[in-house]
Design a protein that fits this description.
The chain is of the alpha+beta class and 167 residues long. Helix content is 63%, strand content 13%. Helix 7 crosses helix 8. One of its GO terms (cellular component) is mitochondrial large ribosomal subunit. Belongs to the bacterial ribosomal protein bL12 family.
Length: 167
């Protein structure tokens, strides 16, 4: 009776290793895709940003606000012609800007740990990536941020000892 339980445990252990293994998922995908994924996963944050910018340029993908992809997904193909018409309509009547890009300009050296922690929370980066991000200031933090949120972020960062610009 005890040997049957041991056999089941061994089988369960083998299955859990197989399902938790990265090799199992790689075997299910195209080797060419797996190679690309491996290469991309080894890129730094800056290299990944360059890759995304290059892909957007080559594939003619427009920059979008963070909330826009969820709203645009229901619009489907009708959104593309509307996006092309917008620059013509927006040019004659300059309206008040509602979406902003935030850029970390500088920070007080004494406040560096607090700034790193805040950047970590805002951008969802790891602690190491947040530290690298802050140390590489001046650097763009976020794009397509609504005015109210941008003002709150700027105020919070200013209170911590960082200088953030809105453009």
């Amino acid at each position: 009776m005890g040997t049957g339980n041991q056999q089941r445990r061994r089988n369960n252990l083998k299955q859990s290793r197989r399902w938790q293994s990265t090799d199992a998922s790689a075997a299910l995908t195209n080797p060419k895709i797996a190679g690309i994924v491996d290469q991309i996963s080894q890129l730094t944050l800056l290299e990944t940003a360059d890759l995304v910018a290059s892909l957007k340029s080559r594939l003619n993908i427009p920059d979008m606000a963070f909330a826009a992809p969820a709203a645009a997904s229901g619009a489907g193909a009708a959104a593309a012609p509307a996006a092309e018409a917008e620059p013509e309509e927006a040019a004659p009547a300059p309206a008040e800007k509602t979406m902003f890009t935030l850029k970390l300009e500088s920070f007080d050296a004494a406040a560096k740990p607090k700034v790193i922690k805040e950047v970590k929370g805002l951008l969802g980066l790891s602690l190491v990536d947040s530290k690298k991000f802050v140390e590489s200031a001046p650097k763009q933090m976020k794009e397509g941020v609504p005015k109210e949120d941008a003002e709150k972020i700027v105020a919070a960062m200013k209170a911590l000892g960082a200088v953030v610009s809105m453009s």
